[in-house]
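dumping the sequnces here before i forget
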Amino acid sequence: MIKEPGGKPPFYLLTGLVLGLVLGFILAWLVWPPRVTDVAPSSLAEEYRDQYRLMVALSYASSGDTGRAQARLTLLGDNDPVRALNSQAQLALADPATQPEARALSGLAARLQEAIALQQSTAAALNTPDPSVQSAATPINAAVEGAAYFSEDPQLLCDAADTPPYVKVFIFDANNNPQAGVELILTSSEEGELTFSTGQRPEMSPGYGEAELRPGVVYSLSIQGEQAMGGLQAAACETEAGEPAWGSWLLLFHAEE
Amino acid sequence: MNRYIAFSVSILLGLLISVYYGWSARSVSVSDANPTLLRLDFRHDYVLMVAEAFEADPDVEQAISRLGFLGVAGQPYNPLDLVSDTLLFGTENGYLVTDLELLQSLEQALLSYDPRFGPTPTP
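..and the predicted 3d for all of it:
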């Protein structure tokens, strides 16, 4: 440590640093705080948010475009947009001069509630296995000629009614030994890329890897960056007990010799 | 080193550290912003909403009042400028033709309502 000629440490440097920090704090926090620009509607003060919400409702009353109105309301970041619209409509209703605004706000609230209920019922229907509707479309072997791995026919396992759909992959090397650490990628337009690998559950097999499938989404599977299987999607089936369930696709790949 | 110079350098260092942190590194959250701080595309979308509402209720004064949302409190503003800017923004950023037509319709209505909104004629 640097010492003063008299043997004292140079405390004046520390004092200067603290003084500078305090001065900088005063400048950057109090005198010239950073000017915030480019904010989203969710950052507006409450009165402005109300005006913005009202304009969303009035423009919806004119255009009838629910998707656009919903997207605009999302920008306001309300926890419950329907409730916010209804509350504002109640306030507008109290004033005879703002009856058209009240009607626009409550009209959008009602339409939004319908749209949300429809979205929820569609999602619920999609997530409920129904063997009569979600038939077991078999994945397609998409490996190119000369690919490093070839597959056996895919099998749909229908074990339990309460488990989500999976793709279960076993990889074997050319000597038929399980191969760990093989990179697998599930790709879909909805979810992008999901990377997993064999060896993640060694109690099953060092050559085993699995990933959950989302009902209604079509995936393709790549092994070590090479396309291996296409048209992979969750399929509904019936268990031995006759219960509807999501099946899991069992895919076995062997390395070319 | 002269201790006065070293002292000044340490003050400067402290100053730079806290100013950097205060202006750049610190995240600033805003919860009570006014509409003049809205991002440009949100401002233009607001103008489009006014134009959409104007189609159903062609009340120019009402539209002017609604456009005042984007003005600075206590300062005069030109509603026609706001609509013309949005029309230009919309043309450059791929707004639907129907949206551009709504904006044009509002622009025309504003100009008809008060020609002073329009550009000042040069002699």
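The helical segments of chain A are 11-31, 46-63, 66-76, 81-93, 99-127.
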